[in-house]
Structures are given as structure tokens and as C-alpha cells.
Amino acid sequence: MSEEGMRRVTAIQNGTVIDHVPAGSALKVLGMLGLLDSRSTPISLVMNVPSKKLDRKDVMKVEDRELTQEELDRLAIIAPNASVAIIRDYRVAEKREVVLGSELTNLARCSFSNCITTNPREPLPHRILVHSTNPLELRCAYCGKSQSVDDIVNHLI
Amino acid sequence: MSSLITVDDLTNEEILSILDDAERMLPIARGETHLPILAGKVLANLFFEPSTRTRMSFETAMKRLGGAVLNLGDVANSSVVKGETLYDTMQMMDGYADIAVIRHPRQGAARYSSNAVNIPVINAGDGAGHHPTQTLLDLFTIRTCHGTLEGLNVALVGDLRYGRTVHSLSEALARFGCSLTFISPSSLTMPEEIVTDLRSSGTSITETEDLHGSIEQLDVIYMTRIQKERFPDEDEYQKVAGVFKLNQSDLVSAKKNMIIMHPLPRVDEISPDVDSTVHAKYFEQAFYGVVARMSLLCRLLGVEVPEVVSE
Known about the structure:
The complex is a heterodimer.
Chain A: H1 3-8, E1 14-22, H2 26-32, E2 43-51, E3 55-63, H3 69-73, E4 83-88, E5 91-97, E6 103-105, E7 127-133, E8 136-140, E9 146-147, H4 149-154
Antiparallel strand pairs in A: 1-3, 1-4, 2-3, 4-5, 6-7, 7-8, 8-9
Chain B: H1 12-24, H2 26-29, E1 42-47, H3 53-64, E2 68-71, H4 86-96, E3 99-104, H5 109-116, E4 121-126, H6 132-146, E5 153-157, H7 164-175, E6 179-183, H8 192-200, E7 205-208, E8 220-223, H9 234-240, E9 259-261, H10 282-300
Parallel strand pairs in B: 1-2, 1-3, 3-4, 5-6, 5-8, 6-7, 8-9
């Protein structure tokens, strides 16, 4: 994390630091990680801080929780350039990158009201395919309808 | 190819090979030759939405080749009304049949079904999604009439938003280098995903609301019905119902070999006076559904069609 970012938030003893999140996206990222409703995980956020790489960025620190690579990869559609550090005893124990795979499984429901997956009793996994990366285009694997990032965030499972 | 859900499941070579096999099977479809190469095989016909041509042509195709057909029957009398999921219904079919054909009001139902079972699944229409077997018979009709699928000028007319036949057909025609004209009311234009994909593949696309302006340049006019059942309310339907009508007098400037197609049923978008013209191919097109589906069934069941099909 940049010094600017560091100065604004307290160092954590153990947990995960997610840096280089596009400015204003921190809450979406927390939503993607299922942390918005968490009442037990301490989270520190800084938003819109200056960044050499992104001009402005958000940074977040999640205490006492090491996010898995699978969880981190969920962030790729919002923060493809995020850099992640796993912190143990105040030191960076591991650095990780988020990777956008070809499919997001059971992250979100399809937003299309007539998709077969809107029946909550249908048991197969919800699958969103990465149709293209530049520009990013996501589509439901079943009905083929395009899904915006906001659609994904609004239909998280 | 283990299932056919969209035309993307087929390569151009596979499409042409299916059409070649279909052509050789014409005498079987006419009942002139008996070739029971699918004897012992069972097809499950799962129509969760009304169908006449597609359901019956699959049944005819299977029976002409010696196979048997299970029909789901009226959905109102099936376990669906008891709340059975599509997944569970498909598990039963996996045990009862060698291949399943599904039509369902929900988009994505066919892909979902193919993910749920081991037997091949054929999409016979999923909501406003895709209808790839209609595309096979459409391509068969076009190739039979024009001798080629390459480089034709094709207009797709009517409900391009909800019309699943035109979704699948436009994708296939683009792959054979056809130029496409999409003619629809502004509220029923081709879905953005499809237009994006076609444009990115370099296909020439014109979008317009004018049916009559370009008739003399066209090789194929593909008419479709404005589908009342897909509209959320009657008022929206009435705004666009009957906006495109083709009469015999509209065809004066058409090329002699221009063909008019329609997936049927029609309402009033093609006047009956067009039926007697050389351009009208929609009834022939419906018959070709049998050979196209025969050929596809053989392909998916791993049964080779003999090089010579004779008495």
C-alpha cells in the first residue's frame, strides 16, 4: 500500500489488505465478499485517496480474516488491478493478485426476470460467463443475457 | 457436439454436413423409402409451451427412422403443476430416453437441462432465446432454393426482439457471409447482445423500420409473427400488431429467385395472395423440418446416415 494510504488507516495485526480498488468501489467490493452485513469482522476503509497508479483509489483492511484466492477472484470484475496482501503479525506474509477467470460460479443470480434460474428451487449452480474482458462483458451461462457489474452486485447470492 | 442449444454448438462444416445428410433423407421423409436406423432409440418430447410443427416434425422424424417417442403431454397433467423442478424432470428423462427435445417458456431452460443430464438435449425454443433446429431447416430451405448459403442478402422482418427463430438464424447467416437487414418496429429490435456479436464479427447489418424500400435487392425475406404471448400487456401489443404486411403487389420489383420464408404460424403478415407466387416457400420450409431434424437426431445419437438412401 502507498504511504498515503497507510497513514490514513491503522495497521492490522492479522487479516487482508486490498489496495488499488477503483475510487468509490469499496462498498461494492465488500458486497462481493459478503462482508457488508458482517457484524463480527472489523473492517477499515479509506476512499478516494490519491494514487499514482489510479489517480484516486479505495483501500480496505479486513481484520482477522485471510480471504481465499476464490473470494479474491470475485473482485476482478470490479477491481481488476487490485493488489492484495495477507497480513500475519503486522507483516506482509503473502502478496496476491486477483485473477479474472472465464466463469463466476454461484456469485450472483442472473438479473433477467425470465431466466430459468429465477426459480429458487432449481438446484444447478448460478453461472456467469466472462464473454470478453476488454471491454468487460458478462453473460448468464444459461440464458445468455448480458449482466452489468451493477446487476451482479444487486443480485449477489 | 453432444447437445444443440444454440447455433454456436455447431461449426459451419457440421451445419453443411447435417444439411447434406438431410438432403439424402428426403425420400424417407416423403415415405418413399423405409430406413429404420434409429430403431430401439427413444426420444423424449418435452414441450412446456404450445407447438405444432416443431413437436410433430420431431415425432415424425423419429418415427420415420424407426425410433420411439415419449411425449410429456399437457403440462397441466404433469408433475410440473405439483412444483417439480426442471432439474428433477430432466433426471427422469435421463433414465427413460436416449435423447430429449425441450421447449420451455423460460430462457436458458435448454442449456440448463443439458447441464442436468447425460443424454443429448435439443433446444426447440427457450422463451425468447434460441431455436437452432428451426435454423437448420431454414438454412436447408435457403440452400435448396439458392444453391448456396454464402453471401446472400437476407431481410429478417417483424418481432426481432422476442423472436427466437431470427436470433438463431441471424447468427448462422452471418457465419456464411450473408448481409443482414433487420426490419422491425423500434420497440422490437434485435437484442443488443446479438447485434454486438454480429457487428464484431464483421457482418454487414442494416436496421430499419421500412419493409418495402429494399425488396428489389433481397434474396430472402424472412417474415415473423408479432408474438402476442410475449408481450407484458395488450396495449403494447396493439401498438405494433400488423405493422408489416406483405402482399403480392409488393413483390413486383423483387428478383425472380427471391424467396419468402416464415417459421409459421402466420397471422396477417403475409397475405394469402402471396401463396401462389414463385416466391412463397414457407410451406415447403415447414416440410424440410422433418429432414433437418432426422439428420440432427442421427448426428446426436451417433448413427451414420448411409451415403446412398434408396428403396
